[in-house]
Structure formats: structure tokens, C-alpha cells
Amino acid sequence: MGGQVEIRPRFAAAKTRRRLAIAAVTVAAIAGMLLINPSAAEVPDSTSPTAATEVPDTTPPTAATEVPDTTPPIAAAEVSEAAPPSSSPELTAPTNPPAPTIPAAMSMSEAVQVGVAGAAAVDVEQAVAVIDRRTGQFVASHAGDTAFNAESIGKLFTAAYYLHDSEGMPSAMLSEDLRSLITESNNGVQISLWQADIIPTIADRYQLENTYNSRSVSPNTWGSDQITADDEVTFLAAMSQDPMVGPQLMEWMSQTEPFGGDGFDQSFGLNSLTGDHGSKQGWSDPGWTPANLHSVGWTDRYFVAILQTSPTATNATMRATSTETAELIAAAR
């Protein structure tokens, strides 16, 4: 190029001007292309090895990847990757929270009614009464004034009678007999300690309006003495405040054995509970109709009486209904 400039000096200035003009037009054209399509800047670089590999990677492949990714794939990624951790709980929210699957605690009246209805469904008649241990007030009563044969529940009156008579300090032998009377429901002790004035005395002392001896008063008919659920919880609340009776009798009731002295299964009703509880259990002799099965005592908050009778239900069925009602009462708030 330099040799031609020297041979034709008169044309040098003109050629130079033309070249400068062409160069200016070229620069302007390139600048315009850059403004219209910035990616065109990469075209001159395509001659380099780096540009050669970038052109196929950034043009077809990138375009092919970006088009589907910005529409379905990216949206899919947002659902499957970002959504599951937060959306999974939302999908199960209607069933997982405690409210739909675990019912709120029943009121005491509701608990008693549910227990009574469940017993009635299997031909077991229940009378239930509940007193608040802190206030001494009734909080529920169903058929509370209905009379039932006392069965071994009457042994509570025998123990209270002798504890009061000894001013809360029975002899060691009497204390052991009374403990066995309550924890094992010992019939022999009941017969040996029986007196006709026990129930009238206790009923008067603790204001039990519907508790009385059976029509045939004898050492062998104490199971037919009459009690009510309301009177039983009234007795429990009153004796718990009697310094000559409460400390010993409540201690023995908290130690009720799983089986009675005659082998009868006592693990039902209030004696089936855990935590703070005590009980005295009662049941009728084999073959007695209608059969009776009772549980009286306390939970951490309530004094409770669950009296039952049925012309058809087995002892196993009546144990189950007594336990169900006791558990409902213990859970009620």
C-alpha cells in the first residue's frame, strides 16, 4: 500500500480523503448495527477460538434452552422445587391441625352425658355424680338420686364409722382390718364389723339424704343397703375434710388392689386411672340379677360416683363402660 502512494503522489490526497470517508461510513454502519443488535458485536469475535465455541453455545443451544425454560420448564421448577416445602403443609392443613382430628376438651356435663349414652347403648344403666374437690360444689349429676344396691361401696361407711369412733387412731389390728376392707374389699371383715347403726350414723353425720339400710337388716344383707350417686360424692367430699376419717380412708382408697380378696378384677372405673386418684369398687354376687358394678372415688380435680346396673350385660362389659365414663370425666375441663 505504501509503494502506490509514492508512485502516484497527485492522487494521494484524493485517495486518502476517499478512504477516510469510506472508513467513516463503515464505522457509522457498524455503530448502527451495534445499536440495533448488540449481540452482533460478537460476530467479529467469532474468528477467535473462544468465539467459535461460544457461537453455537450461545445462539442455538442457549435459545433452545431459554425458550422452553422461561415458559413451562421454569414454571415447573417453581412448583416442584420452591413450592413443595411450603405448599405441602398447605395441602394437608385441613386434616393435620389438632382441631379437626382431636376434639376440644368436653365440659363435665358433656363428658357425663357421653359416658351415660355409651353405657345405655349396651344395656347398662348409669347414675353419675361429680363434685369439684376445690370448691365442694356439684358440677354434674345424672340420675344422681336414683337408688342402687350398695354392694361393697357400703364398706366405706363401715371404715368411716370405726375411724370416727376411734378418733382417727384405731388399734393396729383394727387399722389392718379396715385397710383390707377397702383395698381388697374383704367380705369377712365387713361381716365381722357390721352393725345396724353404721349407715344411719354415717348418713346423719355427713347429711346423706338417700342412704339407708336394706329392708332386711342383717350382717349378710349389707350388699342390699341403698345408696345414690349424689350421696356418694357428698360423702367423699365431706369425709375428705374430716380430720378423724379423711387422712386414713383416702390413703387406703389410693391403694386399692387390682384384684379383690375373692379374685374379682377391680381394675375398672376410677381404679383404672393414672395420676392422682383413689377408689372403692363394688359388685354383685355371681348370678345376681340385675347385676351391679360400681366405682366411686376421685380424680385430680373431682370426687366421682359411677353406679351401674344391668339385666343383661356381663361384668366385662360393665367394667368397660365404667372405665370409659371415668376416663371421660378425668379428661373433662
What is this structure, in a nutshell?
By secondary structure, this protein is an alpha+beta fold.
Note down, in words, how this protein is organized.
The protein has 333 residues and is of the alpha+beta class. It folds into two domains: 2-92, no CATH class; 108-331, Beta-lactamase, CATH 3.40.710. Helices cover 51% and strands 12% of the residues. It has a five-stranded antiparallel beta sheet, sandwiched between helices. Strands 3-4 form a two-stranded antiparallel ribbon. It is globular, with a radius of gyration of 46 Å. The N and C termini lie far apart (107 Å). The model is unreliable at 1-18 and 20-102 (pLDDT under 50).
Low-confidence stretches: 1-18, 20-102
Question: Main β-sheet, in a few words?
Answer: 5 strands, antiparallel
Determine the strand fraction and express it as a percent band.
5-15%
Terminus-to-terminus distance: 107 Å
Number of strands: 7
Number of H/I helices: 15
Kindly report the CATH topology of the largest domain: Beta-lactamase
Helix content: 40-55%
The coarse silhouette is globular
User: How do the helices and strands follow one another from N- to C-terminus?
Assistant: HHHHHHHHEEEHHHHEHHEEEH
Compute the average pLDDT.
80
Features:
333 residues; alpha+beta; Beta-lactamase; 5-stranded antiparallel sheet; two-stranded antiparallel ribbon; 15 helices; 12% strand
